[in-house]
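Case study 2.
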Amino acid sequence: MYKAYASKSVLTHRVDTYTYTGGAHGGTSVETFIYTADSTLVKPQDLFVDQAGVQKFSELVTAGALALPDYKEAINTEWLADSAGPDASNFKTLAFDGTDVIVIFQQYDIAPYAAGIIEVSVPFSQLGGILKPEFLK
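Prediction:
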C-alpha cells in the first residue's frame, strides 16, 4: 500500500509491505520517506532541535501511546520504553500531515502482532522547541 501525507514544508511517502514467509501469519512493515520542498530526504536526527527535544518528543509519544483507548491493554510498557525511548533513530517511521506528526510503530514494536500497526499522533501545537521550526508549517 502507498499513501502520501503533506504539510506546508514536507511531503511524506508511506509504503506498507506485507510478506508471507510461512507459518501462522505473514507480517506487515511500514517505511516512510520525508522530503523537503527541494527534494532533500530528511533523517530523524535532522528533525529535532536538540537532544532535549528528542527526550520531550519521546515523552509525548509514550503518553500518547498509553492513552490510546483501543490499545490500552495490549501495549507492553517495556517494549514501548525501548521503541519510543529518547533516541532519534527510534522515530524513523514518521508522517507529517499538516497538523500532526504521526509516529508509526511496526508490529511487535510496542504490542503483540494481533494489535497490528499502531499510530500515535502528536499535534504540531505541542512540538514547539522540540522539532525544528521549518518542519512545523
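The CA atoms of residues 3 and 14 lie 5 Å apart.
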